[in-house]
Amino acid sequence: MKLTMILLLVLSMFFWGCMPYYIRQQEFHTRFQQGRLEEASQVLDKSREASRRRNRLLFLFNQGVVQHMKGNYAESNRFFEEAHILGEDFSRNLADEALALLTNPGMLEYRGEDFELLMIHFYKAMNFIQLGNLEAALVECRRMNIKLNALNDKHRGQNKYQRDAFIHNLMGIIYQSAGDYNNAFIAYRNAFEVYNEDYLRLFGLEAPVQLQRDIIRTAHLTGFSDQRVYFEGKFGLTNSDVLPAENEGELVFFWQNGLGPVKEQWSINLNMVRGEGGVVHFQNEDLGLSFPFLISSNQAQGNLGDLRFVRVAFPRYVERRPVIASATLSGNGKASSFELAQNINAIAFQSLQDRMLRELSTALLRLALKQAAEKTLRKRNENLGSLFGLVGAMTEQADTRNWQTLPHSIHYTRLVLPQGNNELVLNLYDQAGALRQEIPITVYIKAGQTSFVNYHTLHSKPPGMP
Amino acid sequence: MPNFKFLKNMNMRKAIILSAMFLVVLATGCQQRRVTRIDPDRAVDLSGRWNDTDSRLVAQEMTADILSRPWLRRFENSNGRVPVLIVGEVRNRSHEHIDAETFIRNMEREFVNTGAVRLVQGAEFREQIRMERADQHEFAAPETIARWKREIGADFMLTGTMNSIVDQHRRNRIIYYQVNLELTDMETNEKVWIGEKQIKKAVSN
Description:
The complex is a heterodimer of chains A (466) and B (205). Chain A is of the alpha+beta class and 466 residues long.
């Protein structure tokens, strides 16, 4: 009786741990997606899963977004600042790493993907702008620049996410709003290069026309007339159409659409092929994978003797398609459409693919360690060995954690509006082009200044739904 | 290629040793963070991008050059006093976000400390000082008030540009920076001094 209870307990723990992270966080995500932000924040505060040290970064991400959406900008920045420091100061914890090697990588402290760590500064800069602290927003710009450089240094190779066009663009937008046209120009020009060279090839995303206009405008405002003429010719645009009049100001509207992907687990089967001179290849021909390992003695090969194939648990992203397909912003007798500036969904898939080979070999090492331990135990005691094998199989899991309150994609538009309160309408259209929702938004515009709105539409389909 | 030597002869004793090592790792726990203070004059190159050393080299070169050229003596001879400078804009046309302020401040400090050139406040903080002066006229004791229209007009304006060229092939990169500073006569628009500092770095990964 007692034994059954223990077994049940162990099994239930196993199945809970087995669930992908987004299901374990369901309670929070349901509320978040329905826009019940206050409740979502409370759930997060109470959640045992979220309070673990190894999940601290994810807790901070989620609270930061929730507080930002609630308009508690200072509070949101408190969370994001801690997340930034956590990301910067991350030190290797060898105990965690050893544990992860023997169990699964979900035991490691969550470090954040590069694009996630960059997005901290998007939210922080937006928060500071809403708080009227442009100087602090510029500090975030400089931090973005440091992280962009680090990202660029980390990866070598052509087809990788190693430069972020949107973040360069964002830096330009903020520099421009602070009147630093020179730095804005440099950031915009860098952004264009990345859109044109990387984003187009990797994600099929072209440089926004707004960015082209902004390059020309900041070149003009900095006094780089040669650059202005060059880019006017290159883009086929002229500088005349964009300057606001004396009693007008500007609005930069970021529309964050849907929700980024979640992670789930899948298994890869690898055949073991013994080669010459103690080399063992783990192969999966369907995926075109092959990992050679050197095992130096016959006896060690014997340890792996009855092994024909191994099953490795690996994470993969699953898209959550947004319900809204396009949007326009109307007001002041004009309607302007949004341009796609960042596809977080695509970047997530790309990032994981970029490091798949490296992660797979860690996963293989993990498996080999477990199996070696099982083997030794089995020699001593058959039952103990079997038990360990069972536990080993049970703990073999992929790390399915990621920042799940990020948008699927970010669109933006820039408008010139008269000073004072402006009544705008955000019109949301679905895939079929039908108007789904009209959201009234009031913006206060100060003459000669740039105001920002950051609006997140959360409607999205469940993971994997077409 | 990972070497799985430890799989060999995995008998009980080795298992014990291995678990002991594992425990040691557990006990050692987190890696200690180490911070070392280093001399600001020491050149440390990490990424190949613009850094403090570049800024210092520009400041050294420019300061030494500007103070040793004939424009200074010519001005002193014809006017019987040291010239007054104002620092204008240093435009950044390079591919990086470079702050000119670090070397401009170095130069300014050298000007003021040697007394060879006098400096007046540039556009950035001038307005703030004027506001404070206006404030004094409202609230300060009359005998302590700073008077209006006593600002010193500058004889020359220092402006500049920063340019860069990056040449890259596979894992090798050449980064070239050129910083130019110019001194222009406020009355005649004549350029009286042009300073240049070139920095070239080869980076290979």
